[in-house]
């Protein structure tokens, strides 16, 4: 028979420390600033993710195909105003924030793609 002694308080402290590290790494991966910088419609994507929706569900609820949703979310095709308002309603967002979730060209004002046309 083998007897093992476990220092429960030390183990709990170590697990807590590891959980904190994991939480911080996940938070840094999901910071809006990181995603806003590199992904079109990043704030919209974050809200969809926050509500636990996947692309297929979001597309279905907006009466569009996954291919159409993909072309909208990547900025290859522009969103229709009716789609934007329907998305805002589905995502339980105020219409006065439409410009934040559907910025011109898919990126916030400070993004380099927004500044291309400026002299």
The global form is: elongated
User: Share of helix among residues?
Assistant: 55-70%
Mean pLDDT: 81
CATH class of the largest domain: Mainly Alpha
CATH topology of the largest domain: 434 Repressor (Amino-terminal Domain)
Count of extended strands: 0
* Count of separate DSSP helical elements: 7
Q: In CATH, what is the homologous superfamily of the largest domain?
A: lambda repressor-like DNA-binding domains
| Rg over CA atoms | 21 Å
Helix/strand/pairing category: mainly alpha
Q: What are the low-pLDDT stretches, counting only 5+ consecutive residues below 50?
A: none
Order of helices and strands: HHHHHHH
Count of the separate structural domains: 2
Largest sheet: none
The CATH architecture of the largest domain comes to Orthogonal Bundle
The N- and C-terminal alpha carbons lie at a distance of 80 Å
Strand content: under 5%
